[in-house]
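Translate sequence into structure tokens.
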Amino acid sequence: MEAAIRIEGLVKNYEKFSLDHINLEIPKGSIVGLVGANGAGKTTLIKCILGIIKRDAGEIYVDGEKLEEKNDNWKNQVGMVLAEANFHETMNAVQIGRIMENIFSQWDAGLYETYLNDFKLEHKKLIKDYSRGMKMKLQIAVALSHRAKILIFDEATSGLDPLVRDDLLDILLEYIQDEAHTVLLSSHIISDLEKVSDYIAFIQNGRLLFVENKDEILYRYGVGKCSKEDYSTLDKEGILRLKRGVLGYEFLVQDRQAFMRRYPDMVVDAPDIEDVLLLLEKGEVVS
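Result follows.
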């Protein structure tokens, strides 16, 4: 599958934090959910992809070309949606459109107006009087109206009410129907990622712990629960993480079916994405 973005051996060093040799492919025509705790490196990775900060090592390819070899026009094809909109609060949507027309070479004023109407955004209402969800929809309208082929969301759905988040996710699912379109969606809201993502990329302390097909995670992984005594009898091969609790142990296995064949009396549940990520984040590594 052709990659919209390919990252090879990316390193970015700070005094107390580093992105450590990140390798990541974002397939064209897919939604990749980027997850990790605060400070894990998600925003730093996004800034490297956009060329906002300079990396210390590694390569980034966009549509098969090195980032440094692409002309500045490539950013016309990228739409960025942030947790907080940077539009001037005393302007309205019409004025924003006029400014964007002078920024983006592929700006489509008619398409912008269509999105404003579809998203039920009042054209002359000041941005400061928009709700947070309306500001988010305005960002998306701008991104889609300069015909961006890549959308990058950096925690943009956090703090929105469930109905607005659901609207935004539906917009992404419609956008991705065009196989030339790609989405990188950074979010703490795992249920959102589970709804729309094709792949899940998990960053922990600056390292990319895994990139997995979402459906494969749901099909293959398993969460087992047992007593301390029962756990001591298990072969630890295939157990990725262990969480010790007062009432018993919880553990993550990479191949649920294989584990259940070996231990047919053991309770091993099919997880959701949040179960897997919480155990990867908080569980201890099983050696």
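Note: The chain is about 30% helix and 30% strand.
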